[in-house]
Amino acid sequence: MSSIKACMTLFCLCFFLSGLMQLAHGQSMAPVAAPPMSNDGTTVDQGVAYALMLIALIVTYLIH
C-alpha cells in the first residue's frame, strides 16, 4: 500500500513541476527575421552523426 502511495505522490509531484516549467516561458521574445537559408553542410554532418550514433547503439544492444 505504501508503494502505491509513494508512486502516486511522485506522479503528483512530477505533474505539478511540469506545470511550473511552463510558467518559465511566460514572456516570449520579439520575433526576429530569419537569416537567409544557406547550406553549409553542418546539418548534413549532424544528421550523419546521429545516424552513426543510432547504429552504434543498436549494434551495442545486439552484441550485449
TrEMBL record:
The gene is AGP16. Pfam families: AGP. The chain crosses the membrane at residues 46-63. This is Arabinogalactan peptide 16. Residues 1-26 form the signal peptide. Keywords: Membrane, Signal, Transmembrane, Transmembrane helix. InterPro entries: AGP16/20/22/41.
